[in-house]
Design a protein that fits this description.
The complex is a heterodimer of chains A (264) and B (140). By secondary structure, chain A is an all-alpha fold. Chain A has nine helices and no strands. Chain A has one domain. The two termini of chain A are 44 Å apart. The relative contact order of chain A is 0.13. Chain B is mostly helical and 140 residues long. Chain B has one domain: P-loop containing nucleotide triphosphate hydrolases (Rossmann fold, 3-Layer(aba) Sandwich). Helix content of chain B is 47%, strand content 10%. Chain B is built from seven helices and three strands; from the N terminus they run αβαααβααβα. A three-stranded parallel β-sheet of chain B has the order 1-2-3, with helices on one face. The radius of gyration of chain B is 15 Å and the shape is globular. Classes of the chains: A mainly alpha (264), B mainly alpha (140). Chains A and B meet through helix 2, helix 4 and helix 5 of A and helix 2 of B.
Chain lengths: 264, 140
């Protein structure tokens, strides 16, 4: 009986914890969105920090990211082409490539890439700021941490994921064309027709929304996880661990919901 | 300590529990105030921050980040940040905890003696350190 009571209590505590985390995350997002609409937020200082964030998140890693996305794209395209040839479905190869790579795999991998590189760094930095009282010091100086520290990270994350996914998608399209038709422009019309058939307004809007949600997930969750850190230095790794697990589940959940909405 | 916690908003504090932003240079830490509070441009804010460091006689620490500073340099940066807030009162909270590498009453006296240091400076310290302040005053 005691075991049953303890199990129910533990489950209840976990559910309450998840609810609190979810509520805090959405409350933070609502606060950030309201500030985004506030005219005073858009001063030189915030704008400069946003530019820096985009540089650190997207531009600084551009060559590594492009190399990584080109290798993955080439591998996937090769697998799709060889499978299509084996089954006599070569006519569908370009559509398959676009659907699998550009719409699903590359945005997902971009989000994972940014999460591992920048999300973990953001989580650690915010946790350290929380533990070291740096946020209290900013508040004492009347420098709003939301405008100076958090909002630029959210905006930078969203811009970076959208831009890098777009860039990876474009390079994958070019690679797919070259792999299927080579340097011959004869297939250009058929390839662009396939693209036009796939990229209708609903799909493009869905892709944009998905990338925006990925961008938010890889920045918003690390920031809120960092802010939850108790003021004890040894809790920083625990905070990063929790934050990154939540980021992973959020990215997977967004991808699953996007797939379900498109294909079910 | 309760007196410190209850200080009103018009007091600028220099304290161990109000650290600098670790990933910003001394100059950037100070320039944040004119940038965010008075909405100056980046170059004007940096100029004001540099002028404050010059005034305190520590222009050379401008590009140092918190982990690269000595305790005295860190204190000067915090003091410059507090001064640029332009609040009527400035409270230095337990300076011995921040300035453990210099004879701090004399060091603070030297900083306060720099040109155009206006406003009221108050030092909150443990009573058993009072003798250090007497020594600094009588050594003049």
């Amino acid at each position: 009986m005691n075991f049953l009571v303890a199990s129910i209590e533990s489950l209840g505590a976990k559910l309450a914890g998840w609810f609190t985390v979810g509520y805090d995350t959405f409350a933070f997002l609502a606060q950030a969105s309201l500030l985004l609409l506030d005219r005073t937020t858009w001063n030189h200082a915030t704008f400069n920090v946003v530019i820096k964030q985009v540089y650190f998140t997207a531009v600084q890693i551009l060559h590594v990211f492009l190399g990584y996305s080109l290798v993955i794209s080439w591998l996937i395209i090769s697998i799709i082409l060889s499978t299509a040839r084996d089954f006599g479905l070569t006519a569908f190869a370009s559509e398959m490539t676009i659907r699998v790579l550009v719409l699903e795999l590359l945005p997902f991998l971009t989000a994972l890439f940014i999460a591992l590189r920048s999300g973990s760094a953001i989580n650690t930095e915010v946790a350290l700021m929380q533990v070291n009282n740096e946020l209290d010091a900013l508040a004492h100086c009347k420098v709003p941490p939301m405008q100076f520290e958090f909002l630029p990270r959210l905006i930078g994350g969203v811009i970076s994921v959208v831009a890098l996914s777009g860039l990876a998608g474009l390079s994958a399209l070019l690679l797919a064309f070259l792999s299927i038709y080579g340097m011959n422009m004869a297939g250009f019309e058929s390839f662009t027709q396939t693209m036009a058939k796939i990229f209708d307004f609903r799909i493009v809007a869905g892709l944009l929304v998905k990338c925006t949600l990925f961008g938010l997930a890889v920045t918003l969750i690390p920031v809120t996880a960092g802010l939850e850190t108790p003021k004890k230095l040894f809790m920083v790794p625990v905070s990063v661990l929790r934050g990154m697990m939540r980021v992973f589940f959020a990215i997977v959940a967004i991808e699953v919901v996007s797939l379900a909405l498109k294909y079910i | 300590m309760t007196a410190i916690a209850a200080l009103p908003d018009d007091v600028a504090r220099v304290a161990l529990d109000l650290p600098l932003r670790a990933n910003l240079s001394a100059l950037d830490n100070i320039a944040l105030i004119p940038l965010y509070q008075r909405h100056y441009g980046a170059s004007e804010s940096t100029r004001q921050a540099q002028a404050m460091l010059d005034q305190l006689g520590h222009a050379d620490i401008a590009l140092l980040r918190d982990p690269d500073m000595t305790p005295a340099q860190r204190f000067v940066t915090k003091l410059a940040r507090a001064l640029i807030l332009k609040r009527p009162r400035l409270v230095i909270d337990r300076p011995g905890a921040m300035l453990y590498d210099v004879p701090y009453p004399a060091f603070i006296q030297l900083l306060a003696a720099q040109n155009s240091m206006s406003g009221i400076w108050e030092i909150f310290d443990f009573s058993w350190n009072q003798v250090l302040y007497h020594q600094a005053l009588h050594s003049e």
